[in-house]
TrEMBL record:
Molecular functions per Gene Ontology: DNA binding
Protein name per the record: LuxR family transcriptional regulator
Segments forming domain HTH luxR-type: 228-293
Segments crossing the lipid bilayer: none
Source lineage: Bacteria, Pseudomonadati, Pseudomonadota, Betaproteobacteria, Burkholderiales
GO biological process, one term: regulation of DNA-templated transcription
Keyword NADP assigned: no
Annotated keywords: DNA-binding, Transcription, Transcription regulation
C-alpha cells in the first residue's frame, strides 16, 4: 500500500491510498461458502477471482476478459465526497497502466477528471475520449471556481490529457457503482487506445459493466481497507451523541455540558470521528454526520 496526497496542506495524505496485487495477496483467503450473504456465491468473474489466490492467476482471468470486451486497462477507485469535494480516494491499480495511479493522485487529476465527476453522481455509463475527460473548470467549491478557469487549471488539464495519451488511454467507458456508505461511490474506468468513443459497440459496454460489477464484488469481499465500514451502528453511544450535536452547530463546551463530560473528552472523540470519516475540519464532519445519521 502506498499513500499519495494532494499538494495542499488541508487534506490528509493518508486519505489518498493505492492498493495493488501485493495487498490482495497478503489478505487471508475467504472461504467460498462465505463469499456472499445467505450462502449465495458471487456471480460471474467475481466468483472466479475469489477462487484463485495469486496475482498471476487473477491477471490470467481478467486480462483476457478485458481484451475480449475491447479494452486494455481499467482503473478502480472508491471515492468519498463531501458535497462536490473529493476528500478520499482508495485506488486499486492492479489493472491500470504502470505508474498511472501514482501520477493521477500526485497531480490531483481527480479534481478535473470529468469521468469521475459524472460517475460519482450517476450509475449510467459515460462514454469518453480525450476531448471530453479533462475539464478546464476549477474544482467546485473553491475560490477559483467563482472566477472561472485559470491558466494553471488549463495547464493541468493539458497535462492530464497528455498523460492519458502517453498511457494509451484514449477512449473508453466509466461506471459509477453504489456502496452501502452514503458518502462513497466506486468508479470503474475502462480504457483502450482507440481515439474515438464512437467506435465502442453496445456489446463492449455491457461486457465492461459485467466486469466492473464482478471486480467490485470481489474487492468488497477480499479487501476491507478499500470497502471500509463507516456505519452509524458501529459507533459508541457518546460518539453518536457528539455527531448529533455537531450537526446542531454546538461548540465543544456546549457539547460537553449537554453530555455531562469534559471539554477534553469531547475534543478527543471529535478527533476520533474526524479520523474515522476522513474529515479535515468541523464543517466537513458536520456534513458527514448529517449523511450517516440518516442511513
Amino acid at each position: 500500500m502506498s499513500q499519495y496526497g494532494p499538494l495542499d496542506a488541508d487534506t490528509d495524505a493518508s486519505n489518498f491510498l493505492i492498493y495493488g496485487d501485493a495487498d490482495l495477496d497478503s489478505m487471508t483467503d475467504t472461504p467460498l461458502d462465505d463469499d456472499a450473504p445467505e450462502g449465495q456465491r458471487l456471480a460471474g468473474i467475481a466468483h472466479d477471482l475469489a477462487k484463485v489466490g495469486t496475482a498471476q492467476a487473477r491477471h490470467a482471468l481478467l486480462r483476457p476478459a478485458l481484451r475480449a470486451a475491447g479494452f486494455e486497462s481499467l482503473c478502480y477507485m472508491r471515492v468519498s465526497r463531501i458535497g462536490d469535494t473529493i476528500n478520499r480516494i482508495v485506488y486499486f491499480n492492479a489493472f491500470s497502466p504502470t505508474g498511472w495511479a501514482q501520477r493521477y493522485l500526485r497531480e490531483r487529476f481527480h479534481e478535473i477528471d470529468a469521468r469521475l465527476a459524472y460517475s460519482c453522481r450517476h450509475e449510467w455509463p459515460m462514454l469518453w475520449d480525450l476531448s471530453s475527460i479533462a475539464s478546464h473548470e476549477p474544482p467546485a467549491g473553491t475560490a477559483q471556481s467563482a472566477a472561472g478557469p485559470t491558466s494553471a487549471t488549463a495547464a493541468r488539464a493539458e497535462r492530464f490529457a497528455t498523460a492519458a495519451r502517453d498511457a494509451g488511454m484514449l477512449s473508453g467507458v466509466s461506471f459509477g457503482l453504489g456502496t452501502p456508505d452514503a458518502l462513497d461511490t466506486c468508479v470503474v474506468m475502462f480504457s483502450n487506445s482507440q481515439p474515438s468513443k464512437a467506435r465502442l459497440p453496445d456489446m463492449s459496454i455491457g461486457h465492461a459493466y459485467a466486469l466492473a460489477v464482478g471486480l467490485h464484488e470481489f474487492l468488497a469481499l477480499r479487501e476491507p481497507q478499500i470497502h471500509r465500514p463507516a456505519h452509524i451502528d458501529e459507533l459508541s453511544g457518546i460518539q453518536r451523541s457528539i455527531l448529533e450535536l455537531v450537526t446542531l452547530g454546538l461548540n465543544d463546551k456546549d457539547i460537553a455540558e449537554r453530555l455531562g463530560t469534559s471539554h477534553h473528552n469531547v475534543d478527543y472523540y471529535l478527533r476520533q470521528l474526524k479520523k474515522l470519516y476522513h474529515a479535515t475540519n468541523r464543517v466537513q464532519l458536520a456534513y458527514i454526520a448529517g449523511r450517516v445519521l440518516t442511513q
